[in-house]
Amino acid sequence: MSKLLSQKFYEEMKKLEPRYPTKVALLLPALHEAQREYGWLPGEVMDEVAAYIGIHPAQVREVASFYTMYNLKPVGKYHLKICTNVACCLRGADELVEHCEKKFGIKCGETTPDKKFTLAEEECLGACGTAPAMMLNDDYHENLTPERLDQLLAGLR
Ligand code: FES
């Protein structure tokens, strides 16, 4: 089987290995690194991660499907993950979700036809003190309002 993951992936794993007590403990960072390469986790890529770690592919899928930060299907160039947990809801997260659904013409969990935006609801992002919070790809944005969100989106290419 030819490798789908890059040399960089394997070099990164070699660097991380000494920091973890077992190779299985590397699974979460390995999935992050694999997702960085593909933007999501295709089944064959998860199989390659399983082979590298030395566990059954089903175990990798169990973990990848448990955590919302792993994408099990392709996402758009900009992945908006709006926290809709308690603190964010109390400070307008539902309004932000509705605003985005209307603006993009999609529902949460969907991607715009041009593959530019994916919208998702997220569990607590740990930014409750500056709710409502959202992750745009890997970056946090907090104290959001529909207006601030529009400004942010207007700056994207
Ligand atoms: S509830 Fe939204 S960041 Fe904690």
> What's the CATH architecture name of the largest domain?
3-Layer(aba) Sandwich
Structural class: alpha+beta
CATH topology of the largest domain: Glutaredoxin
Query: Helicity range of the residues?
Result: 40-55%
Determine the N-to-C terminus distance: 37 Å
Low-confidence stretches: none
What's the tally of helices?
7
CATH class type of the largest domain: Alpha Beta
Number of strands: 4
Instruction: List bound small molecules.
Output: FE2/S2 (inorganic) cluster
In angstroms, what is the radius of gyration? 17 Å
Shape: elongated
**Strand order of the main beta sheet, please?**
2-1-3-4
Number of domains: 2
Reading the helices and strands in chain order gives: HHHHEHHEEEH
CATH homologous group name of the largest domain: Glutaredoxin
Strand proportion, as a percent range, falls in 5-15%
Let me know the average pLDDT: 96
> How does the major sheet shape up?
4 strands, mixed
Outline the structure in words.
This protein has helices spanning 7-16, 27-38, 43-53, 57-66, 86-90, 93-104, 146-154; strands spanning 78-83, 117-122, 134-136, 139-141. It has seven helices and four strands, in the order H-H-H-H-E-H-H-E-E-E-H. Helix 2 (27-38) packs antiparallel against helix 3 and helix 3 (43-53) packs across helix 4. The chain folds into two domains: 7-66, Arc Repressor Mutant, subunit A (Orthogonal Bundle); 78-154, Glutaredoxin.
